[in-house]
Specification:
With about 280 residues, this protein is mostly beta strands. It folds into two domains: about 200 residues, Nucleic acid-binding proteins (OB fold (Dihydrolipoamide Acetyltransferase, E2P), Beta Barrel), CATH 2.40.50; about 50 residues, Ribosomal protein L2, domain 3, CATH 4.10.950. It contains one helix and 17 strands. The longest helix is centred in the last third of the chain and has 6 residues. The two termini are about 30 Å apart.
Length: about 280
């Protein structure tokens, strides 16, 4: 994938605005109606209506595509890639699969997958991008994505554009994975994973360029605490441009911010982590 850079011909493009090159996508027909949803914009609010994530709201209306992260019920049923499409709710591209039994599903698109290519989930599938196997059937050293943390629960790991994990070893019923973050952890060898690295790896190099484009993405402005009044933020107050005047930064509610460990020391999956990314 590539990034298309615009010339600074207008004020809105003065900072080298760039976009993902979508010329690689191919969509001949409309998305099947049973694979799309029109979801509401929660704007950072939970089920009680309270804001739990700040600086969210507005943005373009998005139609949600239903992506199959499991393929459990399609074992040994071959499929053909009918199209490679853009998904507004994720950074990775998605592909429409047409199965031999007549069913259609969306999957995440790995690199080097083309329209017309055959895709298969099977214990004896070839080690080719897009094919899905159990970790115990994947050769050591392979790069994989859309990995299940718990067998049967669908892919949870390495689902964003350009992501992949490396299978380093399999022993005692577990596969040892090197995660995109550098963390090394164990996953049960019965868990499913898809071969290859996800497409659109240049997504991280795109320059937003202007504030209005960020608003269309659903992000509202962020105001620094140090420019607020003391009543509004612990960093607020003072004359002129000064540091926060504290030993450590705080949230608007007075709690520690930046560098605070939030993971529970008693979390059940700690025993599966061999090496943390911080070490």
């Amino acid at each position: 994938m590539a990034v298309k850079i615009y010339k600074p011909t207008t004020a809105g493009r003065r900072k080298g605005t760039s976009v993902t090159d979508y010329s690689v996508l191919r969509k001949d027909k409309k998305s099947p109606k049973f694979l799309i949803l029109s979801g509401s914009n929660r704007a950072g609010r939970n089920n009680s209506g309270k804001i739990t994530v700040r600086h969210r709201g507005g943005g373009s209306r998005k139609i949600i595509r239903i992506v199959d992260f499991s393929r459990q019920d399609k074992k040994d049923v071959p499929a053909v890639v009918k199209s490679i499409e853009y998904d507004p709710t994720r950074s990775a591209f998605i592909s429409l699969l047409a199965y031999k039994d007549g069913d259609k599903r969306y999957m995440l698109t790995p690199q080097n997958v083309k329209v017309g290519q055959k895709i298969l989930y099977s214990d004896t599938a070839e080690i080719l991008p897009g094919n899905r196997l159990s970790i115990k059937n994947i050769p050591v050293g392979s790069i994989i994505h859309d990995i299940e943390m718990i067998p049967g629960h669908g892919g949870k790991i390495a689902r964003s554009a350009g992501s992949y994990a490396t299978l380093q070893n399999t022993e005692a019923g577990y596969g040892m994975l090197k995660m995109p973050s550098g963390e090394i952890r164990r996953v049960k060898e019965a868990a499913l994973a898809t071969i290859g690295q996800l497409a659109n790896s240049d997504w991280m190099n795109v320059r937003i360029g202007k504030a209005g484009r960020k608003r269309l993405m659903g992000w509202r402005p962020t105001v620094r605490g140090k420019v607020m009044n003391p009543v509004d933020h612990p960093h607020g107050g003072g004359e002129g441009h000064n540091p926060i005047g504290m030993k450590y930064p705080k949230t608007p509610w007075g709690k520690h911010a930046l560098g605070v460990k939030t993971r529970s020391k008693k979390k059940y999956s700690n025993r599966l982590i061999i090496k943390r990314r911080s070490k």
